[in-house]
Amino acid sequence: MDKLILRDQKIAADRFTGEKIEHASFINCDFSAADLTDTQFIDVQFYHRDSQLGCNFSRATLRDASFKNCDLSMSNFSNANLLGIEIRDSMLQGADFRGASFMNIIAPKVWFCSAYITKCNLSYANFANVVLEKCELWENRWLGTQVMGAKFSGSDLSGGEFSAFDWRTLDITHCDLTRSSLGELDVRYVDLEGVKLDSDQAAALMERLGILVVS
What we know:
4% of the residues lie in helices and 18% in strands. The chain is built from one helix and eleven strands; from the N terminus they run βββββββββββα. It has one helix at residues 199-207; strands at 5-7, 20-22, 25-27, 40-42, 66-68, 85-88, 103-107, 110-113, 115-118, 141-143, 161-163. A five-stranded parallel beta sheet has the order 2-4-5-6-9, with no helix packed on it. It has a two-stranded parallel sheet with strand order 1-3. A two-stranded antiparallel ribbon has the order 7-8. The N and C termini lie far apart (62 Å). It holds the Pfam family Pentapeptide_4.
């Protein structure tokens, strides 16, 4: 079967709903408002290196969709429904998640989030004001990721690589940060209530305050 390659196309709303797409390439394609519920993408390219363009998923429905070993760099997920999304071992550099929802709202003030974004490169992605509470976000690279106003409370951020990352601008209370490289995290300016750290991390943070931790 020939490899699926689409360029500069507007994707019809139900074209790939619930499908399994493997080893395909989408070049500057517009998935905006498409229904991709339960759709699986495996080894798919959504980023075109020559043009440096990603694909547009704005306002799309991606409930329980999955991306494995995909290149989603520079893709636009703004205002998309991403409840239950799974993105693993993928590239997401510069991806825009502003306005995206990972929430299931049951009633006013009653809701939960669901997302599995693991072993991904999130460098320079934009999660400003995004709510990703109690989600699996482990072993990601967070270089220069924009997180102003984001809420990650209770999420698993273990094994992450954080650099050029402004910890002061988001809520990380009750997060698991064990095995993570914490960059410039300063305990004087970040609310660490309920945060899980390993002993080496705690000692390093105390040393920045001039406190020597001995065993």
